[in-house]
Amino acid sequence: MAAGVATWLPFARAAAVGWLPLAKKTMPKPPVDKKSRNDEILFVNVSGLRFQTWKNTLDRYPDTLLGSSEKEFFYNEDTQEYFFDRDPEMFRHILNFYRTGKLHYPKQECIQAFDEELAFYGIVPDIIGDCCMEEYRDRKKENQERLAEDTEAENATDTPLPPDSTSRERLWRAFENPHTSTMALVFYYVTGFFIAVSVIANVVETVPCRPPKGSKKDLPCGEKYTLAFFCMDTACVLIFTFEYLMRLFAAPSRCKFMRSVMSVIDVVAIMPYYIGLVMPENEDVSGAFVTLRVFRVFRIFKFSRHSQGLRILGYTLKSCASELGFLLFSLTMAIIIFATVMFYAEKGTKGTNFTSIPASFWYTIVTMTTLGYGDMVPNTIAGKIFGSICSLSGVLVIALPVPVIVSNFSRIYHQNQRADKMRAQQKVRLARIRLAKKGTTNAFLQYKEEGGFQGRGSDNAVCLKNRSSFEHQHHHLLHCLEKTTNHEFTDELTFSEMCMTESVGYRTSRSTSISSQQGVSTSCCPRRAKRRAIRLANSTVSVSRGSVQELDTLQVHKTSSGPQSRSSLNARTEDLKLNCEDRDFTAAIISIPTPPANTPDESLPPSPAIPGILRNSRPTSFTHETVKISSL
Amino acid sequence: MGAVVGTLTLQTRQRQPSRDNIDDELEMTMVSHRPEGLEQLEAQTNFTKQELQVLYRGFKNECPSGVVNEETFKHIYAQFFPHGDASTYAHYLFNAFDTRNNGSIKFEDFVMGLSTLLRGTVREKLEWTFHLYDINKDGLINKEEMTEIVRAIYDMMGKYTYPALKGDVPKQHVDAFFEKMDKNKDGVVTLEEFVLACQEDENMMRSIQLFENVM
């Protein structure tokens, strides 16, 4: 609950007087606050710097170190103050958090030191105020990335393999980190060399060589030395195929490997060769096949395995894809507009180059980028005027806004990131609020279940002392509301179960004996059937119309992680004993008398005025059974 | 081109007005309010000086400007009742505290209200409650007003209650209330009828005593 809310609690409780005339039942007694109500000034000494503050200020956040009883560990009797051996500069911010409810991040402090201080004082960093949250997050992300890089660098290179790794793992490691063994290094350089050879061969085979004797035409070298180039190509492709297959074999996850970009490049690089082998020497088809050889140039991308820079470039382009798309879109708009204008301006001219609007695109692009090939020129005056406007605006569109657009895009990009961060943060915040709400709900339900309302004696006092007086008073307030409306708070689980049982049509009345209601047993929880079976096995009661009660004690462990699914327990089940010392409690269950003639899957009708239902429906390994109590 | 540049400038121009609004808001929240002196408040209410000090420190910390408006009030009150929707009841409660009807609660209103509720006589408390129920402040409680209040209270319980809220429970509650309070069965409850009926109700009298030591 928010800190300042504690200030308003007395007010809300006083306002509960307004419920009194409506309440059908008497209000419960308020909790007695034994502690002195006078506020006192506490002294906090942090490494010599003395701070003073009201005790109430610190009590605002009871789940932090300073707000809880944990600070008693640091109390110095001689000097009557709380001494902390921590950074006094940082403590100023921590204390301001208690005073104002907002945590600020000092920009000059190291992020890790700040985090450590927060962890020491038990403050969750999520509550940093909006003003400082962005700075905090950025610094934290930077720090984490740096840490990650460091650990990656550590792990990547020289850690020796575990001794029992398979040859497959060793092979994969050799492929990924060529520096680990000499064989891997050799292989790395060999493949690099062959990539270079293959690329150069592709380039050279198109260069015109001196024609062979007896022919005048210049031949490209590829056709002159066909055999040589073919052998070189075959060798390269064999090496690449071998490499690809080895990688495929060694990859820890073959599907993931096959989907990765590098393997796609590998496949595309070697495919044309194999297709060429398979394809017959047909004139029509080989025309199409020739274009496939273009893909051989993709072999140059295989260098990106060898070069970190290429990889980074690729990654950058990928991450800027949306901005580039926007740039392209705005350019396209301009091109279309000017091309249309030029086309209609030049329409009248005879023999004009501007045959259609798409044909004018070429002119517009060439003019706007100030290339000016001169293959298409306007002839009409209007065309020339618009042509000059086009080239001027080309300068403006391309040259001037490029830096502006670049910075705009970087700003838009950061803004979007911030918006996404805010949205994510908002989601986290909402989730936290929901969790806190749930926590309060569950705290209240658990409080009721532990029979907090009846003064029951010393064994209760132990476990009830764990709660702050604020919680006591808040629970009292909620209890008053329950009494006013004569309804009780439950949690969602219980509520839905009750709805289900009621919809199946339970009815019970004292006068009639319990008749077995078959067919209603299989409700939502298969556990219920088991429960009933267990209880039947335990109960040894004879039939009677009244409420014969069989006390059954069960060991139910309650873990401290929280009352996730406690339902309401009316304190009227007197036999509930709480043994709080070892945090598990023995529950007494009152089971319904059942006629022995009933079949095992007899269902127990919960009357609408059921005084007590204890259900522990959380399936942990500790609970032996989950029990439903009802008494007539 | 020109169009692109034009659209960019358009966007920046649209953002200007919103910034002006923020500036206006900033100015308004700067207005703060100081309460009357400590001695006067001590004379007017039933609190001691120390209690007033503690109350004011908490109040000022929450609302540095010295006033609480209805939104803040609803927000604060909703934190106490996370199960359901406390906004309607908070609205009525706000009106009950806002005796000057100017849409905000100052520290004096706050402390006077608390003084009545915690340290006042039984009659004063009953009068305060009557004014809470009397939504239109005409001196009479009719069934509609009561139904609104009761519905607002049941809204605070939320959805998950035991036993489940079936039928028109608030209406039944209101009928029972009128049964008890409306002596002459004229459909409205006056202050005197209210006070009389409450004083006859033992449960209520007992409960009223319980709330003395909230501070």
Figure out the total of helices of chain B.
Answer: 11
Beta-strand fraction estimate of chain A: 5-15%
The number of helical elements of chain A comes to 21
Largest interface: A-B, 71 and 65 residues
Radius of gyration of chain B: 23 Å
Topology of chain B as a string of helices (H) and strands (E): HHHEHHEHHEHEHEHH
Strand segment count of chain B: 5
Largest sheet, spatial ordering of strands of chain B: 1-2
Structural class by helix and strand composition of chain B: mainly alpha
CATH architecture of the largest domain in chain B: Orthogonal Bundle
Question: Which consecutive residue ranges of chain B, at least 5 long each, have pLDDT under 50?
Answer: 9-18
Structural class of chain A: alpha+beta
Question: Which keywords apply here?
Answer:
heterodimer; A: 632 residues; alpha+beta; Potassium Channel Kv1.1, Chain A; Four Helix Bundle (Hemerythrin (Met), subunit A); four-stranded mixed β-sheet; two-stranded antiparallel sheet; 21 helices; 9 strands; 6% strand; disordered C terminus; B: 215 residues; mainly alpha; Recoverin, domain 1; 5 strands; ion channel (chain A); Volt_channel_dom_sf (chain A); signal (chain A); potassium channel (chain A); A-type voltage-gated potassium channel KCND1 (chain A)
What does it look like?
- The complex is a heterodimer of chains A (632) and B (215).
- Chain A has 632 residues and is α+β, with helices and mostly antiparallel strands.
- Among the domains of chain A are: 41-149, Potassium Channel Kv1.1, Chain A (2-Layer Sandwich), CATH 3.30.710; 167-306, Four Helix Bundle (Hemerythrin (Met), subunit A); 315-430, Orthogonal Bundle (Helix Hairpins).
- Chain A has 21 helices and 9 strands.
- A 4-stranded mixed beta sheet of chain A has the order 2-1-4-3. In chain A, strands 5-6 form a two-stranded antiparallel ribbon.
- In chain A, helix 14 runs antiparallel to helix 16 (381-399).
- Chain A is elongated.
- With 215 residues, chain B is mostly helical.
- Chain B has 2 domains: 41-120, EF-hand (Recoverin, domain 1, Orthogonal Bundle); 125-214, Orthogonal Bundle (Recoverin, domain 1), CATH 1.10.238.
- Chain B is 67% helix and 7% strand.
- Chain B contains 11 helices and 5 strands; from the N terminus they run αααβααβααβαβαβαα.
- Chain B has helices at residues 2-30, 38-44, 49-62, 70-80, 87-97, 107-119, 122-133, 143-157, 169-181, 191-200, 202-210; strands spanning 67-69, 104-106, 140-142, 161-162, 188-190.
- Chain B has a two-stranded antiparallel ribbon with strand order 1-2.
- The chains are: A alpha+beta (632), B mainly alpha (215).
- Chains A and B meet through helix 1, helix 14, helix 16, helix 17 and helix 19 of A and helix 1, helix 3, helix 4, helix 6 and helix 7 of B.
- Strand 7 of chain A pairs antiparallel with strand 4 of chain B.
- Chain A: The chain crosses the membrane at residues 183-204, 224-245, 257-279, 324-345, 357-373, 385-406.
- Chain A: Component of heteromultimeric potassium channels. Identified in potassium channel complexes containing KCND1, KCND2, KCND3, KCNIP1, KCNIP2, KCNIP3, KCNIP4, DPP6 and DPP10.
- Chain A: It holds the Pfam family Shal-type.
- Chain A: Keywords: Ion channel, Ion transport, Membrane, Potassium, Potassium channel, Potassium transport, Signal, Transmembrane, Transmembrane helix, Transport, Voltage-gated channel.
- Chain A: It is found in: Membrane.
- Chain B: One of its GO terms (cellular component) is voltage-gated potassium channel complex.
